[in-house]
From TrEMBL:
Binding site for Mn(2+): D150, E152, E226
Domain 1-deoxy-D-xylulose 5-phosphate reductoisomerase N-terminal, first and last residues per copy: 4-132
Annotated function: Catalyzes the NADPH-dependent rearrangement and reduction of 1-deoxy-D-xylulose-5-phosphate (DXP) to 2-C-methyl-D-erythritol 4-phosphate (MEP).
Cofactor(s) this protein cannot do without: Mg(2+); Mn(2+); Co(2+)
InterPro entries membership: DXP_reductoisomerase, DXP_reductoisomerase_C, DXP_reductoisomerase_N, DXPR_C, DXPR_C_sf, NAD(P)-bd_dom_sf
Keyword Coiled coil: no
Pfam families xrefs: DXP_redisom_C, DXP_reductoisom, DXPR_C
Protein name: 1-deoxy-D-xylulose 5-phosphate reductoisomerase
Catalyzed reactions: 2-C-methyl-D-erythritol 4-phosphate + NADP(+) = 1-deoxy-D-xylulose 5-phosphate + NADPH + H(+)
Residues involved in 1-deoxy-D-xylulose 5-phosphate binding: K125, S151, E152, S181, H204, S217, N222, K223, E226
Ligand binding (NADPH): T10, G11, S12, I13, N38, N124, E126, G210
Domain 1-deoxy-D-xylulose 5-phosphate reductoisomerase C-terminal: residue ranges: 146-234
């Protein structure tokens, strides 16, 4: 039996992962589940999957939760906080860790999983954006197997020659093409973007996802973060990675080889496909995703991204090229700005403004330890909060 720990089990990726795992109770056993605020869902998952450990990271009174665990005679040990996450990420009996916490909060436990040499199904792109070099070096040194869950990176992984090694530049590859749907505002008149609401930004045309990544998709900061993620996973410079708008979200990304061949991976936009691929790699299992009906899709379109509409793309590409502290600052600024937008404190277009201004204040240097990364992260959050407050007043 493969033993799995799911970090961020109550989120969109966590739930999709459990949906796939539930099909194979004889192959996979859930050893640990973690949740932050949605304790009702976490309890329901504990009842269904009976893990050995459950971790709660949010600030709650856990009496009721503990009573419920007892009442249902669940044998799980309850752990708290970030230490609990790090602990279950490195449990000796666990061979596979699904890193599906959103944002910088997922960095430490993803890194722990890599340091413990696990098979790591990586959804938490922010950990690579923040600490790519460190993360990939730890993976190499500790023999961790990194399997990308982000659909674009999973697609690229599937289009590469199959030895499953992330962090090594693939042979014969000229370019990676990251596809992007363009999100809900691809064709919205530019003068309306200033006043779009969080609900409009979270209404993605093709994918169902958590709120933070939905807003990132609407600004296209998500694609910028994915550019940085791809640089680290596939050891390619940002100049050799192109972004292509493909509104149908059927092609999930492409690899162009020196001979002119372009390989793509296609499928319905449903995260259970990359999750099932990464869980079962190098084999294949059913994921529950519908067959792709290309005739019904009709046509596939491709466009160059409009950098006036999506300034976050330019800002992220600059941060990718600069490297070092810049991607850390970018991620922190974006997390603060997205949260402020979701709380309706700043406007949609302010998200990119906050990122731009934080990067302008950030000194260029290369953090070489987790502590140094976290100190850039903290400082950038302070800048971003100040800038967001100034924007609030306008
Ligand atoms: P969700 O917001 O749906 O879920 C996030 C998970 O993280 C939840 O389990 C949440 O707990 C937990 N969490 C939130 N804050 C904290 C914290 N401070 N400490 C510990 N745990 C926390 O996000 P998604 O599932 O959409 O995304 C997860 C990651 O996967 C992100 O990095 C995203 O970029 C990436 N990703 C997601 C895709 C998608 O389709 N959803 C596609 C590709 C990548 P709770 O809900 O209990 O509060
Ligand atoms: Mg993606």
């Amino acid at each position: 039996m493969r033993q799995i720990a799911i970090l961020g089990a109550t989120g969109s990726i966590g739930c999709s992962t459990l949906d796939v795992l539930a099909r194979y109770p004889d192959v996979y056993r859930v050893a640990a589940l973690t949740g932050h605020s949605n304790l009702e869902r976490l309890l329901e998952q504990c009842r269904k999957f009976r893990p050995d450990y459950v971790v709660v990271t949010g600030d709650h009174n856990l009496q009721n939760f503990t009573d419920q665990l007892r009442k249902c005679r669940l044998p799980c040990e309850l752990l708290h906080g970030a230490e609990g996450l790090d602990y279950v990420a490195a449990l000796p009996q666990v061979d596979t860790v699904v890193a599906a916490i959103v944002g910088a909060a997922g960095l430490s436990s993803s890194l722990e999983a890599v340091r413990a040499g696990k098979r790591v199904l990586l959804a938490n792109k922010e950990s690579l954006v923040m600490s790519g070099e460190l993360f990939m070096a730890e993976a190499r040194e500790n023999g961790a197997l990194l399997l990308p869950v982000d659909s674009e990176h999973n697609a690229i992984f599937q289009c590469l020659p199959g030895d499953g090694k992330c962090g090594v530049r693939p042979e014969g590859v000229r370019r990676l093409l990251l596809t992007a749907s363009g999100g809900p505002f691809l064709n919205t008149p530019l003068d309306q973007l200033e006043s779009v609401t969080p609900d409009q930004a979270c209404a993605h045309p093709n994918w169902s996802m958590g709120r933070k990544i939905s807003v990132d998709s609407a600004t296209m900061m998500n694609k910028g973060l994915e550019l940085i993620e791809a640089c680290h996973l596939f050891s390619m410079p940002p100049q050799e990675i192109d972004i292509v708008i493909h509104p149908q979200s059927v092609i999930h990304s492409m690899v162009e080889y020196f001979d002119g061949s372009v390989l793509s991976q296609m499928g319905n936009p449903d995260m259970r496909t990359p999750i099932a691929h990464a869980l079962s790699w190098p084999n294949r299992v059913e994921s529950g995703v519908d067959w792709l009906d290309l005739v019904k899709t009709g046509s596939l379109e491709f466009h160059a991204p409009d950098l006036d509409r999506f300034p976050a793309l330019r800002i992220a590409a600059d941060a990718a090229a600069a490297g070092g502290a810049m991607p850390v600052a970018l991620n922190a600024a974006n997390e603060i700005a997205v949260e402020a937008f979701l709380q309706q404190k700043i406007g949609f277009l302010d998200i990119a403004r906050v990122a731009d201004k934080v990067l302008a204040k950030t000194e260029q240097w290369t953090p070489s330890s987790l502590d140094q990364v976290l100190s850039v992260d903290q400082q950038s959050r302070i800048y971003a909060n100040e800038i967001a407050e100034q924007l609030c007043k306008h």
